[in-house]
Write a structure and sequence with these properties.
Length: about 575
C-alpha cells in the first residue's frame, strides 16, 4: 500500500517524466501526506512504476521481494564441490561421526594435492570453514542421521505417529509389556539389597485402568506373562481384604478381545498362542523395535517410574546420571511385601483416581461408565488356571509320566491306559511355581485329570527354577536323580545356598538368591495362610498341642484381642 501511494501519485501526472528532480518533488509530497519517515529514492520509484507498467493488471508486482535478497546457494567451483562431496562421504557421513573440523582439514590436504598438478592461474581456492559448515547443514537431515547414526536411530527420530489406537468399549484392546522397576528391593531377613525386580504390566486402552501386574526377580518369561494375565483377568476382591487401608475398590476383571505385545521371545511362545486361542483372545504383535505401536502401556510404565518408583526410598532413577551421589543400595528400605502393598495403594487410590487428559476423566470413572455399556467376559477360575498353565507333550506308560525328571502317576492313569492303550501320547499342564501336581488332559474329552508327583515330600511347593538348580547340583555331584535321599539332601543344600546368596556381598548373587527363593508379588508368597485356632473353651486351661514358639505367638494374639 505504501508503494502504491507513490506510484499512483506518479501516474496522476499529465505527462510521466522520470527526471530525478520531478520524481523527488512527488516523493516529498506523498511522504508528507502518508507520514512516511523513510521515503524511497527516485530510482526506487522509477523501478516500481516500470514494473507496474509491464504488468498493469497485477498489483502484486509492488509486493517487496525480501526472499530474493542475498546470495542463492554456494559459490564454490565444480572442482571444489566434487572434492568436498568426496571428503564428506568418506569422513563425515560415517558411523564414526567425525566433527566438521576433520572435513575442513581433509579438504585442505586434498586441495593442496590438487594444486600441485595445476598451473598458477588455475589454482583452486580453499573455501572457509563457515562455507563448509553451511554446506553440510544444507544436506538432507534424514540422510545425515541415517549415515551417522544408523537406520534404527533415523527411523525412530523421523517416525510418523498419529493418534493412539481407539477403543470403543472395555477390554477391546489390552497392552502388555515388561520393564525393570527403578527401585531396589531389600531382603526381609538380611536387609540387604537384592536388586531391581522386573514388573509385567497390563492396561486397558479404553479406560486406562491397570488390569494386573506381576513382580519378580526372574527375567521376563512366559510364566511372568501368564501370572500377569491371571491377575488381570480375575476379580480383585482380595485387595480390600489384604489391604484394609485402601479407600477404593479395584473393579477390573474379565477376558479381553485383543492383546497387543511386542516381539519378546516370551510372547512368541507356543504356550501363549495356545492360551489365547483357548480363551478366545486375538493376539497382535507390534513391528520390531517400535514401542510407539503400543503407546498406552509405554506411557503408563513411565508414570509408574516417575510417580511411584522415583518417590520411594531406594529408587535408582531412570538414568544413573541423575543420582548425583545418591546410593540406592544404602538408601533402599523397601521389601517385596511393602513394595506390593504400596503399588496397590498407588494403582487403586492414586492412578485410578487421577484425571487423565487422554480420556478427559479418571480411569476409575471411565471403567464404571464402560461397565454400563457392556459386561466384561468372565471365565471360571479353574478353566482360567488351566489355560494359563504351561504345556508339555509326554508319553504315558506303566511308570506314569516323567516331567522335568519327576514321575507322576495315580489310578486314573491306569484307567486311561486300559481304555485307550498301554502307551499314550498326552498333553500335560503344569504350574512352574508348584511341581507337586500336574493336570493331564484326557485325549478324548480334554478334561483335566490331576496327577500327583510320586515324591510329594520333595515336589510339593517346589518351583521349577529351584528344581533345575537341584538337578544341576545332582548332575555335578554324580548322584542318581531317582534317589529320594539325594533329592532331599540337594533340596536342603539348595536352601543353604540360597541363604548364603542372600547374605552375599555381591548384588548379583543376592538377586540370584531372590530368584531361587521365588520372591515375587504372588499373594500366596506375600500373604501365607494364617494359623487358625481350634475351638477352645477360654475359661479352661489353654494347653493345645502346639510347639512352644507358635504357642507364644498365639498367646500374644489372645492378649491383644482381649485388650
Amino acid at each position: 500500500m505504501r508503494r502504491r501511494a507513490y506510484v499512483d501519485a506518479l501516474c496522476a501526472q499529465a505527462s510521466v517524466s522520470y527526471t530525478t528532480s520531478r520524481l523527488e518533488v512527488i516523493i516529498q509530497r506523498v511522504a508528507q501526506t502518508i507520514g512516511d519517515s523513510r521515503p524511497p529514492s527516485a530510482s526506487s520509484l522509477y523501478r516500481w512504476h516500470r514494473a507496474l507498467v509491464k504488468n498493469p493488471d497485477d498489483l502484486r508486482v509492488l509486493i517487496p521481494r525480501f526472499d530474493a535478497r542475498g546470495g542463492h546457494g554456494h559459490r564454490m567451483s565444480d572442482e571444489i564441490l566434487a572434492l568436498l562431496d568426496d571428503v564428506i562421504s568418506r569422513l563425515y557421513l560415517t558411523l564414526q561421526r567425525r566433527p566438521m573440523t576433520s572435513v575442513m582439514e581433509a579438504l585442505r590436504i586434498r586441495v593442496a594435492q590438487e594444486n600441485t598438478t595445476r598451473s598458477s592461474n588455475r589454482q583452486l581456492t580453499l573455501p572457509s570453514y563457515a562455507t563448509i559448515k553451511r554446506y553440510i547443514r544444507s544436506l538432507p537431515k534424514y540422510d545425515v542421521d541415517l549415515a551417522r547414526y544408523g537406520r534404527e536411530y533415523a527411523r525412530k527420530k523421523y517416525r510418523h505417529s498419529s493418534i493412539s489406537p481407539l477403543a470403543t468399549y472395555l477390554l477391546e484392546r489390552v497392552e502388555i509389556d515388561h520393564t525393570p522397576l527403578n527401585l531396589f528391593v531389600i531382603d526381609e531377613e538380611t536387609f540387604l539389597a537384592l536388586g531391581r525386580p522386573y514388573v509385567t504390566w497390563m492396561i486397558d486402552c479404553y479406560s486406562r485402568m491397570i488390569l494386573g501386574f506381576y513382580i519378580s526377580f526372574a527375567p521376563p518369561s512366559i510364566d511372568a506373562v501368564f501370572r500377569c494375565m491371571k491377575h488381570g483377568f480375575e476379580n480383585k476382591r482380595y485387595a480390600r481384604e489384604h489391604y484394609p487401608d485402601i479407600n477404593h475398590d479395584w473393579p477390573c476383571y474379565g477376558i479381553p478381545k485383543l492383546v497387543v505385545v511386542d516381539n519378546g521371545l516370551e510372547f512368541h511362545s507356543k504356550d501363549l498362542r495356545r492360551a489365547t486361542f483357548e480363551l478366545k483372545i486375538d493376539y497382535q504383535f507390534c513391528p520390531p523395535r517400535t514401542p510407539w505401536f503400543k503407546p498406552i502401556v509405554e506411557r503408563s510404565l513411565r508414570s509408574l517410574a516417575e510417580q511411584f518408583a522415583h518417590l520411594m526410598p531406594g529408587t535408582s532413577f531412570a538414568n544413573w546420571f541423575d543420582r548425583y551421589g545418591y546410593d540406592p543400595l544404602k538408601e533402599g528400605v523397601v521389601t517385596m511385601p511393602e513394595l506390593v502393598h504400596a503399588l496397590h495403594v498407588w494403582i487403586i487410590d492414586v492412578y485410578a483416581q487421577t484425571y487423565h487428559r487422554g480420556i478427559k476423566q479418571t480411569p476409575y470413572a471411565a471403567w464404571k461408565k464402560g461397565e454400563e455399556l457392556c459386561t466384561p467376559r468372565k471365565i471360571a477360575t479353574e478353566r482360567l488356571t488351566l489355560a494359563l498353565s504351561q504345556q508339555a507333550n509326554r508319553v504315558l506308560g506303566h511308570a506314569g509320566i516323567e516331567l522335568h525328571g519327576l514321575r507322576y502317576n495315580n489310578e486314573d492313569m491306569l484307567v486311561l491306559r486300559k481304555q485307550l492303550g498301554h502307551r499314550l501320547k498326552i498333553q500335560v499342564r503344569f504350574d512352574p511355581e508348584d511341581l507337586g501336581l500336574v493336570n493331564v488332559l484326557h485325549p478324548l474329552t480334554k478334561e483335566p485329570i490331576p496327577v500327583p508327583c510320586l515324591t510329594p515330600e520333595y515336589a510339593n511347593g517346589l518351583r521349577l527354577y529351584q528344581h533345575q538348580l537341584i538337578q544341576k547340583a545332582i548332575r555335578r555331584e554324580g548322584l542318581r536323580v531317582t534317589d529320594p535321599l539325594a533329592l532331599a539332601k540337594a533340596k536342603q543344600h539348595m536352601q543353604d545356598i540360597v541363604g548364603n546368596l542372600l547374605r552375599s556381598n555381591k548384588l548379583n548373587d543376592r538377586k540370584k538368591g531372590a530368584k531361587a527363593k521365588g520372591s515375587n508379588s504372588s499373594l500366596k508368597t506375600l500373604h501365607p495362610r494364617p494359623y487358625t485356632l481350634p475351638e477352645t473353651n477360654w475359661d479352661a486351661p489353654f494347653m493345645p498341642d502346639i510347639p512352644p514358639a507358635e504357642l507364644a505367638v498365639i498367646t500374644l494374639d489372645r492378649e491383644d484381642s482381649h485388650e
